[in-house]
Amino acid sequence: MNFDEYMKVILYMTTTLNGYIATATDGTPWSDESWASYAKKVQEVQNIVIGRRTYEVMKACNEFERIGHPFTVVVSSGEHEPNANCVFVHSPEEALDVLQAKGFSEVLVGGGGMLNAYFMQKGLIDEIYIDVEPLVFGKGIPLFAESDFDAHLELINTKQLSKNTVQLHYRVKKYN
Questions:
Q1: Can you give the residue ranges of every domain in the chain?
Q2: For residue 44, what are the CA distances in angstroms to 10, 68, 87, 153?
Q3: Can you give the pLDDT at residue 78?
Q4: Which residues fall within 8 angstroms of residue 154, CB to CB, at 6 or more apart?
Q5: Are 67 and 12 in contact (CB under 8 A)?
Q6: Handedness of CA 151, 127, 141, 18 (dihedral sign)
Q7: N or C, where is the chain less crowded by C-beta within 10 Å?
Q8: How confident is the model at residue 80 (pLDDT cuts 50, 70, 90)?
Q9: Which option is the CATH number for 26-165: 3.90.1720.10, 3.30.420.40, 3.40.50.2300, 3.40.430.10?
């Protein structure tokens, strides 16, 4: 199915200057401004697609409450019990099918690095928001896990979220 005709898929992540989305121990010491911007976007689209590890970290830290309890689709190879506000699927395409069936016109992909790479490799991302924090981690989880893809981006907008944090908004160029 061609999801481009039906919905916009947005990747939204916060990174360090050197491209890490979390520390090696899953820490995300992001600014209040970055969290507020992320929560606002999640609340706009009312859904989020994440990987299993990201789901476990967010659940343990009560981050779903912080971002407004969006409808959550978790991409995982394992079997899990769904609940009223969360379903588990086996692929990004299946995640998009679920959200399309629920009538969402925009989808927010929220990590982690392996899921981000898979969505990019399959050409499923339309736009990317990156909040760049004034941090550098020596080790951590990269924005994209190593994968075989290339993407060309067009800058839509830049926005200063705070004195030290900037947001970059890109469109992913699609080539047929």
A1: 26-165
A2: 12, 10, 20, 23
A3: 83
A4: 170, 171, 173
A5: no
A6: positive
A7: C
A8: confident
A9: 3.40.430.10
Q: How far apart (Å, rounded) are the C-alpha atoms in residues 171 and 128?
A: 6
Residue 28 token pair: 């995300």
Q: Give residue 5's pLDDT.
A: 59
10-19, 53-62, 76-85, 142-151: segment of lowest average pLDDT: 76-85
Cβ neighbours of residue 170 under 8 Å, at least 6 residues apart? 127, 128, 129, 130, 153, 154, 155, 156
Label residue 58 by pLDDT band (50, 70, 90).
Answer: very high
Q: Is 64 exposed, middle or buried (0-12, 13-18, 19+ CB in 10 A)?
A: middle
**Rounded-to-integer distance, Cα 14 and Cα 6, Å:** 26
- Output 102 or 84, whichever has higher pLDDT: 102
Return the residue matching tokens 């992913």.
172
- At 119, list the tokens: 């969505």
pTM for the full predicted model = 0.94
CA 111 remoteness from chain centre: 4
